[in-house]
Amino acid sequence: MSAAADRLNLTSGHLNAGRKRSSSSVSLKAAEKPFKVTVIGSGNWGTTIAKVVAENCKGYPEVFAPIVQMWVFEEEINGEKLTEIINTRHQNVKYLPGITLPDNLVANPDLIDSVKDVDIIVFNIPHQFLPRICSQLKGHVDSHVRAISCLKGFEVGAKGVQLLSSYITEELGIQCGALSGANIATEVAQEHWSETTVAYHIPKDFRGEGKDVDHKVLKALFHRPYFHVSVIEDVAGISICGALKKRCCLRLWFRPKGLGWGNNASAAIQRVGLGEIIRFGQMFFPESREETYYQESAGVADLITTCAGGRNVKVARLMATSGKDAWECEKELLNGQSAQGLITCKEVHEWLETCGSVEDFPLFEAVYQIVYNNYPMKNLPDMIEELDLHED
Ligand SMILES: NC(=O)c1ccc[n+]([C@@H]2O[C@H](COP(=O)([O-])OP(=O)(O)OC[C@H]3O[C@@H](n4cnc5c(N)ncnc54)[C@H](O)[C@@H]3O)[C@@H](O)[C@H]2O)c1
Ligand SMILES: O=P(O)(O)OC[C@H](O)CO
């Protein structure tokens, strides 16, 4: 292949150097052996990202193998296996109904088989299932494999609070970045324009352009005309935003409306929440960059969209109006999907307690007390105020 012919132009998007956007096309070297991609997870976001990835793998056969495997936690829907439905009717009728999936996306119920000979794994499951998935994958994933985590959450355990990408790296010995943004799955699935942020560090054992995953390959894998991707280095920054925005402040954010309060109250809670997210990053992940919170889709933009229309907000609204507990509301509204804010809220509280830092995060703490100890929602302003006074 000639030097000119073995490079592809990605004209629809722009790689970022820091935040400097380039309007010129990006030249991508054809892969020596097209990268084989597997998506682990087939929920609302898992299926959406699998659609995006499968479209691009079909579109760039010089870079990616055309067939994309999607590992599916098998279940029966009206007597039919979900994998069979996806592979024959090309729809995930339970988690992403009404969206036609590309025919090169193959649902596979066998986790180990789905990662056979794979080069890139895209993790996309509710974070509470990650430890079990990783323990099953151990010994079945070669160290040359690269990964991207689309999960939003933390792993909190004996080692403290850990980014999920770091957890994957530690458990499986593979380099892992993250994808996070203002991305309500159904909007992306319907191809309504959205932005996202991918963060990835090129590892020391990088094998070279055309042989290994770099920022251009990731841009080609995730960028669509309706899904614009910015690729940066700050894995910690985008992961912290994704984990904390909905978990700890978003759920409350809608509550003011449930209580009959207005936009001013909602804005106040978002403002305090963003401050606490940044403080959390500075305290526990000093490598994260403050500008990521303001400038990237994964930062304040995700906070805004999640507060406006995410699943955690829907659960919060029902809690506020019905008086039912969070888990009842999740079950009633989400048909098997997960409002992970409930879990992260507790995990973060326990971590802050261990560190003696609860009082530095009055809003996070107020959310925890409301969800887990039935503190009245209407006391929120005072709870924040009281804790602020404590600080003084
Ligand atoms: N849905 C969104 O709009 C959205 C957008 C951006 C990021 N995210 C993040 O993406 C990640 C995945 O979310 P999602 O929306 O795809 O999932 P989801 O909330 O739709 O969860 C359902 C998924 O969990 C699976 N599941 C159930 N029990 C399981 C088990 N025991 N083991 C393994 N899997 C099991 C189901 O099969 C299904 O695939 C989460 O971290 C979420 O925060 C979601
Ligand atoms: O529906 P939620 O609350 O899980 O949020 C969805 C996404 O994270 C929005 O970016």
TrEMBL record:
Chain sites annotated for binding NAD(+): G41, S42, G43, N44, W45, G46, F73, F129, A185, R311, Q340
Domain spans labelled Glycerol-3-phosphate dehydrogenase NAD-dependent N-terminal: 36-201
Residue spans crossing the bilayer: none
Active site: K245
Keyword terms of this UniProt record: NAD, Oxidoreductase
Family matches, as InterPro entries: 6-PGluconate_DH-like_C_sf (IPR008927), 6PGD_dom2 (IPR013328), G3P_DH_NAD-dep (IPR006168), G3P_DH_NAD-dep_C (IPR006109), G3P_DH_NAD-dep_euk (IPR017751), G3P_DH_NAD-dep_N (IPR011128), NAD(P)-bd_dom_sf (IPR036291)
Catalysed reaction, written as an equation: sn-glycerol 3-phosphate + NAD(+) = dihydroxyacetone phosphate + NADH + H(+)
Cellular-component GO terms for this entry: cytosol; nucleus
Binding residue positions for substrate: K152, R311, N312
Catalytic class of the enzyme: oxidoreductase
UniProt xrefs under Pfam families: NAD_Gly3P_dh_C, NAD_Gly3P_dh_N
GO biological process: carbohydrate metabolic process; glycerol-3-phosphate catabolic process
Keyword Oxidoreductase: yes
EC number: 1.1.1.8
Glycerol-3-phosphate dehydrogenase NAD-dependent C-terminal domain: residues covered: 234-380
Family, similarity comment: Belongs to the NAD-dependent glycerol-3-phosphate dehydrogenase family.
Name the UniProt record assigns to this protein: Glycerol-3-phosphate dehydrogenase [NAD(+)]
